[in-house]
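We both want to read discrete structure tokens more fluently, so let's practise on a single case. Once you have written the record down, we can walk along the chain together.
***
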Amino acid sequence: MPPTADNPPAWHHAPVRVGLVGAGPWARAMHARTLAEGPETTLAAVWARRPEAAAEVAAPYGAPIAATFEALLDSCEAVAFAVPPSVQAQLAVRAARAGRALLLEKPLALTLDAARAVADTVAETGVVSQLVLTKRYHPTTRAFLARAAGTDVLGARSCYLHGAFLEGEFATSWRLEHGALFDLGPHLLDLLDAAVAPIVSVRATGDSRRWIELTCEHDNGAVSQASLSGAVRVPRAQTRVELFGSTGTLVYDTASIDHAECWPVLRREFASAVRTGTGTGIDAAHGLRIQRLLDNALRRR
């Protein structure tokens, strides 16, 4: 059977050895499993501030525990981060200077200066970087963006709503402190920026820890709205984007998609980027662009 989108060609390179930083719920639920399943990657080692937590993440896959961050760097050729943004920003700079490729979470950092330091270091060292903007790796998202490219959009509205901040293991300290703008905002800003036109300014109203509204102005004159909350009790997380224009309406809704379909695509594209040195464009530079929009929203309240 010839290779197709549903039947990709066999992996012809040696698996990329990826070290994982972090041992929280996202490291367990996504990063460790995705990296260990291969065939494009192997989980080379796990390092976390608490060795016992790192051991819990690594054990199901038989991966070793790194005693220090430096030991992790010595064991791998790429580093995946599943830690709070402030920690990621510091360690990613060190990893890039050591010549390691980076699989980065959003947002890059908690401040624009820290995000700029990551992106600048990646540019200076020439290492491959890729951002885990989950939805970008799903076929439904890519089909929506392809259709949006041929649509004359006058305005858009969108939402990303869930209740994970109310309770449970994802109600982590940085999420509770900085709220939906930093946790959910990058996803919607990225989708609106790609689907409508580049965003030139963002204005925010509300409380990021409860409910926040973003008004975005795009360089084609369109205006979009984004509603964000991680503190509403809904049956399941809701992500929806509606584009309106002279030719009709285009809707993107994640209610029926399986996010597990994103992970093999993410893994394959990251490994390919590392082996070929050719990135996907969803990289640290793009992460810095999203960070500038977050900073713009904070300043224009």
